[in-house]
TrEMBL record:
Residues 270-473 form the Lipid-binding serum glycoprotein C-terminal domain. Gene3D superfamilies: Bactericidal permeability-increasing protein, domain 1, Bactericidal permeability-increasing protein, domain 2. The gene is LOC105909886. SUPFAM superfamilies: Bactericidal permeability-increasing protein, BPI (SSF55394). GO terms for molecular function: lipid binding. Keywords: Antibiotic, Antimicrobial, Disulfide bond, Glycoprotein, Immunity, Innate immunity, Secreted, Signal. One of its GO terms (biological process) is innate immune response. Belongs to the BPI/LBP/Plunc superfamily. BPI/LBP family. This is Bactericidal permeability-increasing protein. The lineage of its organism: Eukaryota, Metazoa, Chordata, Craniata, Vertebrata. It is found in: Secreted. Residues 32-255 form the Lipid-binding serum glycoprotein N-terminal domain. It comes from Clupea harengus.
Length: 479
């Protein structure tokens, strides 16, 4: 029979109909930003904005005004520089469907510059001036979206600024002139300032994007795995929250194969005490299990040197021979080796306050012959259930497991019949001293959570709920 390497069109069609299923855009990880989180963003943002606005460069202004009774006066204002600027009052809010709003009120600034006038064709006068602006207001709406790489992006959708009252003080020159003149200059300066503010605010907002782009959309874990945290859709903004849906899926490094299951439908409770709530679903955990299982990371050789020296139970044919007479006879005085393998991916389930991992596998026992060849002795089927304790450390999730129960049945024996039950204590010991510590050492290293820049987590709690873990946390970008 000849088998063709080409796929039949029929087969391709079947595959194509499967695509929408496997490309399911359900989020494996959900993040909720609260008003408290927005408030922290405002505090950080205002420092940046204040610095930005201090860089306002007011271009030189010149013009001609008719001033009674002297006639045309030509004026020039130059060398204007901001001497102080304050943004004492600001507020950020959610704009459902769009993003967030930023309202700044009572802002003030003062500016120093030089003035020069010419009138009656030949009279020149000059000096300096100080302008003080009070009641400056800025109102802006900022859209929050997902960019083409699944990272958050912001842009200004509207901005208005209004310069409330301004007062100007001239130094040098003739005072009668100022009185005639200040109204014109005041107006020209206000409109010049007003023109500068919104573009600078808009710039400051755009400058957030490089920071937002540091979201770890592909977070490296270890030599086997990476986690994808790209956003599956643009954030959803409601009255009190911004909700982000992230993929939250483990992949084998460089080989992105979808698992045969998809994220559960879950929603985060409307809690408000922390800045952020992160929901990590059982899908994310099971995608990890899928990846490590595919990579063969759950297959483990166990040798006697992995058993503590203090243990009376050794991995040799003497220990096992006590329960399997034929083994003692056929392979006397040999060391043994066990191969533990999963037969399918371990299943992780989240119930309230309980994370359980259920694994099915086999244990193959070998005698190590004098010429180092392995002689298979028997194969046992093993079902184990472990409970996990999960915690947050740094910006990572870590854990440890303890054994709930284990059961074994005979798969095959090459050394005659024996009571599998009689080996229970030996294998319980092997699990406890050789297998679980390996798993725990790995779990302890942790798995990165979604993060932006040099974010650290504070006031963090973790709760296990049905189908997901809820992490409530504040964040800090200081040090
Ligand atoms: C968690 O659930 C598993 C399976 O339902 C159970 O065996 C285990 O005892 C539970 N653990 C706790 C701490 O409730
Ligand atoms: C190793 O020794 C065993 C038992 O004596 C024998 O059956 C086997 O063929 C040997 N293997 C090699 C590679 O020499």
């Amino acid at each position: 029979m000849v088998t063709s390497g080409r796929m039949s069109p029929w087969c391709l069609l079947t595959l194509l109909t499967l695509v929408p299923l496997t490309l399911s855009s359900n989020a494996g990880v959900k993040v909720k930003l609260t008003q408290k989180g927005l408030e922290y963003a405002r505090q950080i943002g205002m420092t940046t904005l204040q610095q930005k606005l201090k860089t306002i460069k007011v271009p030189d202004l010149s013009g001609t005004e008719k001033v009674a009774p002297i006639g045309k006066v030509k004026y020039t204002l130059s060398g204007m520089q901001i001497t102080s600027l304050g943004l004492p009052k600001s507020q950020m809010g959610m704009v459902p469907g769009t993003g967030v709003s930023l309202a700044i009120g009572n802002a003030f600034l003062s500016l120093h510059g030089n003035w020069k006038v010419r009138y009656l064709h030949f009279i020149k006068d000059s000096g300096s001036f100080d302008l003080a602006v009070k009641d400056l207001t800025i109102n802006t709406n900022i859209a929050l979206k997902s960019d083409e790489t699944g990272r958050p992006a912001v842009n200004t959708v509207s901005c208005t600024s209004n310069v409330g009252s301004a007062s100007i003080k001239f130094h040098g020159g003739a005072s009668w002139l100022y009185n005639l003149f200040s109204a014109y200059i005041d107006k020209a300066l206000r409109s010049a300032l007003q023109k500068q503010i919104c573009p600078l605010v808009s710039d400051a907002i755009s400058e957030l994007n490089p920071h937002l782009k540091t979201l770890n959309v592909l977070a490296p874990v270890d030599k086997y795995a990476e986690i994808e945290y790209s956003m599956v859709a643009s954030p959803v903004v409601s009255k009190a929250f911004v909700d982000f849906g992230l993929k939250g899926e483990f992949y084998n490094i460089g080989r992105h194969k979808e698992p045969p299951f998809s994220p559960p439908v879950f929603g985060l409770p409307p809690q408000v005490n922390n800045m952020l709530y992160i929901g990590v679903s059982s899908f994310t955990a099971n995608s990890a299990s899928f990846v490590y299982n595919n990579a063969g990371a759950f297959n483990l050789f166990i040798t006697d040197d992995m058993i503590p020296p203090s243990s009376p139970i050794r991995l040799n044919t003497r220990t096992f021979g006590a329960f399997i007479p034929q083994l003692a006879k056929e392979y006397p005085g040999l060391m043994m080796k066990l191969l533990v393998k999963t037969t399918r991916q371990p299943i992780i389930s989240f119930q309230v306050n309980n994370v359980t991992l259920q694994a099915s596998g086999t244990v193959t026992a070998y005698a190590i012959q004098p010429n180092t060849t392995l002689a298979p002795l028997f194969i046992l089927n093993m079902e184990t259930s472990v409970s996990a304790h999960i915690y947050v450390t740094g910006v990572k999730l870590a854990g440890s497991v303890i054994l709930n129960r284990m059961s074994m049945s005979l798969g095959a024996s090459y050394v005659g019949p024996f009571q599998v039950k009689s080996l229970d204590n030996i294998f319980l010991m092997v699990l406890k001293v050789a297998v679980l510590p390996k798993i725990n050492a790995h779990l302890q290293k942790g798995y990165p959570l979604p993060a932006i820049g040099k974010m650290s987590l504070v006031n963090t709690q973790l709760q296990v709920l049905k189908d997901y873990m809820l992490i409530g946390t504040d964040v800090s970008f200081r040090g």
